[in-house]
UniProtKB/TrEMBL annotation:
It catalyses: L-cysteine + L-glutamate + ATP = gamma-L-glutamyl-L-cysteine + ADP + phosphate + H(+). InterPro entries: GCL_type2/YbdK_subfam (IPR050141), GCS2 (IPR006336), Gln_synth/guanido_kin_cat_dom (IPR014746), YbdK (IPR011793). The keyword Nucleotide-binding applies. Keywords: ATP-binding, Ligase, Nucleotide-binding. GO terms for biological process: modified amino acid biosynthetic process. This is Putative glutamate--cysteine ligase 2. It comes from the Bacteria. Pfam families: GCS2. ATP-dependent carboxylate-amine ligase which exhibits weak glutamate--cysteine ligase activity. Belongs to the glutamate--cysteine ligase type 2 family. YbdK subfamily.
Length: 360
């Protein structure tokens, strides 16, 4: 059974005003004093963000328990510093982000300027047996990544305004020079050559700054999916992780069977990514097989059909179907946020409710 780990970036906010607070260093200092939180929390680029990483898990029930535990620990340590955590991919209220200390972060802030805006994502690591298998997976999962973006979309507001996007984080993140979809690599050698060429341009510092939508991890024997917004509730995060593992296993089987990747161009994949960010689950998406518009429910169903045999073998198919049906019925995080704003007329109340849901 392939193991799965999740990294979530949580927004630190004032519990009264809902505005982001630059207290990451203080929250991390609290966590470092707690023996149960060793190697769980990590420093990120922004002072208004607290990131955690779960331990790798084989079972999705155990992964969910890990995510819930880490969110609760994050809330506790943030509370000790006078703030709260919210699983929001962008701040609904205006924010002027500040950056952590250190030469690396300062270089990024100076080099990329306004592109370094505060956004929070969910990264999923799925184990692979080798770099060869990993690159084969990277090549074959490409068309399906926008569906994960649509399911996880949780960033409709930006600087106090409705963006008309379901995942505005997706659009902000796409401004980074190394982010986005990739062409088919075909081999580990081609993948490594491309990474080396990118580093050699001087536009990025090292391999860790290669922000492909899905990439070989520089630290772990995994492929890392980087397309999802941080999800408002833990169940949606688990659904995304489940689908990621299903995609990896399905792609690995296709590779072993000698089936070639779908040769969609990067141009079409970028359009599919934009479409998912714009409409989420509210309208049409581009079907991963045809790159033509289709209802979101149909496209989600196609993803479930694609990974169905792998999920059946892991025992996750029934739960994944039920979770997809729930998100399609109740809406993703973007839909929840907009409904909250429609009812309350207050972005502060939106943040307060999202804090409550994050810490449940």
């Amino acid at each position: 059974m392939r193991t799965v780990g999740v990294e979530e970036e949580l927004l630190l906010v004032d519990p009264e005003s809902g505005e982001p607070k630059a207290l990451a260093a203080a929250a991390l200092a609290r966590a470092e004093q707690d023996d149960t939180c060793q190697e769980v929390f990590e420093k990120e680029l922004y002072d208004q963000m607290l990131e955690f990483a779960t331990r790798p898990q084989s079972g999705m029930a155990e992964l969910r328990a890990e995510i819930v535990r880490c969110r609760q620990e994050a809330a506790r340590h943030a509370g000790e510093t006078g703030c709260a955590v919210a699983a929001l991919a962008t701040s609904p209220l205006p924010v002027n982000p500040s950056f952590g200390v250190g030469r690396r972060y300062q270089w990024m802030a100076e080099q990329y300027g306004i592109s370094t805006r505060l956004v929070c994502g969910c990264h999923v690591h799925v184990s692979v047996e080798s770099d060869e298998e990993g690159v084969a997976v990277v090549d074959r999962v490409r068309p399906w990544l926008p569906v994960l973006s649509a399911l996880s979309a949780n960033s409709p507001f930006w600087q106090g305004r409705d963006t008309s996007y379901s995942s505005y984080r997706n659009r902000v993140w796409s401004r980074w020079p190394s982010a986005g979809p990739t062409e088919v690599f075909g081999s580990v050698e081609a993948y490594r050559h491309r990474v080396d060429d990118m580093v050699a341009t001087g536009a990025i510092l090292d391999e860790a700054m290669v922000y492909f939508d899905v990439r070989l991890s520089a630290r772990y024997p995994t492929v890392e999916f980087r397309v999802a917004d941080v999800c408002l509730d833990a169940d949606t995060a688990v659904l995304v992780a489940t689908l990621c593992r299903g995609l990896v296993e399905t792609a690995a089987r296709e590779w072993r069977e000698g089936r070639e990747p779908v040769p969609h161009s990067v141009s079409l994949l970028r359009l599919a990514s934009w479409r998912a960010a714009r409409s989420g689950l509210e309208g049409e998406l581009l079907h991963p097989r045809t790159m033509r518009p289709a209802p979101a429910a149909e496209v989600v169903g196609a993803l479930l059909e694609h990974v169905g045999p792998a999920l059946e073998d892991s025992g996750d198919l029934k739960t994944a179907r039920a979770s997809c049906a729930r998100v399609l019925r109740e809406g993703n995080g973007a839909r929840v946020q907009r409904d909250l704003y429609e009812r309350t007329g207050s972005l502060r109340e939106v943040v307060a409710e999202c804090v409550r849901r994050t810490q449940e």
